[in-house]
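## Example record

The block below lists the input lines for one assembly entry, exactly as stored, with component labels intact.
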Amino acid sequence: MDHLEIMRNQWQGSGKHAEFTPFQENEFSTLIKKQMKKQNHIIGRYFWGTFLFHILIYALMGHVLIKYGIVSSDQLVLTLSLFGIALTFPFTAKLMIEFKKLAQVQRGSIGVSTIKSQVEIRYGILSRYFRFKKLYDYFLIPIHCAIGAVLSFHIFVPGSFSYVSFPIISVFVISLASCWYAIRSENRTYFKLPLEELKGILGDFDKK
Amino acid sequence: MMEPSTDKAFINLINQNLGIAYKVSQFYFDDAENRQDAIQEMMYQLWKSYPSFDGRSKFSTWMYKVCLNTALTYLKSNKRNKNEPLQENHYHLPSEPENNKEEELRLLELAIGQLSSLNKAIVLLYLDGFEYSEISEVTGLSKSNVSVRLVRIRRELELKIKQKLNR
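Predicted structure tokens for the full assembly:
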């Protein structure tokens, strides 16, 4: 008889896990409320961070559009700020839809078939959202940075573009690098590592 | 916040099978705080999934699925930095065991702690008296794969115990 078999016999015979305090109805209800609050807090922290960034973009573009585009009738400011808002809007809408799917899994909506299928479902939901987010990161962030750099110099630094092209490019590169650094850290914490872990578990399932 | 609905029948079932949550948390989490967090998250996941429980399998089997899934996915990512493999000191066992058998079982516990999450789940179910077909039902692995894995796990565990004893 090997050690695992000995342990199996002891495990089943010992009853060493039998001393638990049973849950009372109100105690259980409190626990569920606490966990719901905790989940909402985790989700909310990420959501509001992203959403606030979108609001800032709208506020900034809106301000520039009204003050320098409409009032001063500057065609370049008008075009770029409208382009920036129009380009961001579908992403905000999609972000909210995708995020709602990710966050609001209704009670009982997911059946529990096997552990493998549960891991696959979780991996699928997370990777789908991450794919969308990467599209946003790679496509929209550089455009925002470019618009921001061009508008800042156009409005606040008089002179032709050829004269200030190097500073514009420098500001664009610095702002893009800052965004890239922040996004990289966010993606790693919220998506890459959890996805790697889930992939590792799924890989273990596929081993023969 | 809305009052969550918790019916008596569900809580009774949970209380009757509470040992499952404790066993899973003991297997996957190394300190008391993590275990407590794990049990709370398991209860929440059980409560969330309960309306989809159709009674086709035993409640205990279903509860194992939810608890193991919680341990494998949700909490692992939250406790990434804290969830180190089990070390000798985590068990708080006496440094001088009473006899060889006890020492060997202690080493077995340590070796189990070093298995992959999935293999740990298989061992836990096996220790709890699950048949291969039931382990297959919980995990989603084929019955033959469970059997092959258990042979390999046994070999791996025995080897680790032998290595430790020979040191």
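Confidence is low (pLDDT under 50) at residues 80-97 of chain B. The domain at 90-167 of chain B is CATH 1.10.10.10 (Arc Repressor Mutant, subunit A).
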